[in-house]
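User: Reviewer 2 asked us to show a designed sequence for the structure in our supplementary figure. I'm pasting the structure tokens here. Could you produce the per-position amino acids so we can include them in the response letter?
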């Protein structure tokens, strides 16, 4: 065949085409494999045993008065929340039957922690019922209960309400033990619905590692409620120069009024001539919004009492 014959050119190009196909396939395989590895890592990171933290009490049989009383109370709570009009946020004077069932649940809880934890973990149980049970379990504020709540919060497969309830109950535990799980949720789930409350819970840990998280949460790319929570949460850390300087910059202006108000409130709760000077400047500043001037005057009056 002649050199210009198309068949010659085709046969010469074939190895290069095959090589390109092989390289493309390898790149695709690597991309898919990397994605699978990343997904597997994510699953492993969030995986926590869905098991009770308290062992069963062999003496508690289905005929035991504590067991019978607990199950009757749970059934009443189920009945209460079976009405769509009933919501945990609207429990009030007309909820006597619900409150009575909850009181009976609390009375038997010490002997029934294992069965109650099983119910709280049951995804087939109504979320509001699980939340009520978590309220009772959390009354036994030991380390095992803290770990149980942390496991529910950290599991993204959990119902949003159950995770939110676990976060609220977990936030009652002060100390650094919660920092890791709270940081995992904060870093791993930017769309977590309780993100502002999550920031406050991180602040309550009083961990030195919370400071960069909270300072980062002040930045404009975060929703305003998250930024305000960060400003509130930084109050215990104001003895650190970098925190005091950053909060003073926020209070002085350039940020939304609600954020400035939160920063002013945190700063004004601490003594210091620098805070007095800041409040006077804000109260007298002709270019300040009236709301900021009023807040500054109010804090000056409080500090002078």
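Assistant: Here is a per-position design you can include in the supplement:
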């Amino acid at each position: 065949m002649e050199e210009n014959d198309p068949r010659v050119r085709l046969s010469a190009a074939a190895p290069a085409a095959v090589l390109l196909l092989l390289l493309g396939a390898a790149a695709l395989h690597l991309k898919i494999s990397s994605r699978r590895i990343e997904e597997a890592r994510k699953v492993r990171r969030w995986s926590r045993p869905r098991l009770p933290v308290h062992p069963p009490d062999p003496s508690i049989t289905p005929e035991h008065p504590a067991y019978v009383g607990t199950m009757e109370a749970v059934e009443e709570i189920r009945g209460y929340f079976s009405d769509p009009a009933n919501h945990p946020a609207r429990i009030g004077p007309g909820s006597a039957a619900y409150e009575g069932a909850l009181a009976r649940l609390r009375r038997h809880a010490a002997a029934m922690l294992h069965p109650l934890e099983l119910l709280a973990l049951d995804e087939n149980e109504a979320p509001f019922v699980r939340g009520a049970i978590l309220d009772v379990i959390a009354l036994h504020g030991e380390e095992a209960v803290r770990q149980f709540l942390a496991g529910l919060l950290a599991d993204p497969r959990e119902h949003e309400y159950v995770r939110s309830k676990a976060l609220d109950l977990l936030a009652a535990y002060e100390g650094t033990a919660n920092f890791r799980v709270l940081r995992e949720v904060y870093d791993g789930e930017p769309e977590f619905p309780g993100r502002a409350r999550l920031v406050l819970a991180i602040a309550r840990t009083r961990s030195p590692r919370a400071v960069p998280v909270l300072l980062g949460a002040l930045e404009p790319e975060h929703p305003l409620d998250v930024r305000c929570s960060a400003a509130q949460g930084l109050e215990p850390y104001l003895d650190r120069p970098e925190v005091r300087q950053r909060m003073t910059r926020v209070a002085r202006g350039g940020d939304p009024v609600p954020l400035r108000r939160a920063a002013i409130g945190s700063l004004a709760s601490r003594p210091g001539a620098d805070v007095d000077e800041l409040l006077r400047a804000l109260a007298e500043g002709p270019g300040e919004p009236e709301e900021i001037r009023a807040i500054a005057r109010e804090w000056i009056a409080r500090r002078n009492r």
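For the response letter, you might also mention the following. Residues 28-47 have pLDDT under 50 and may be disordered. The longest helix spans residues 6-46.
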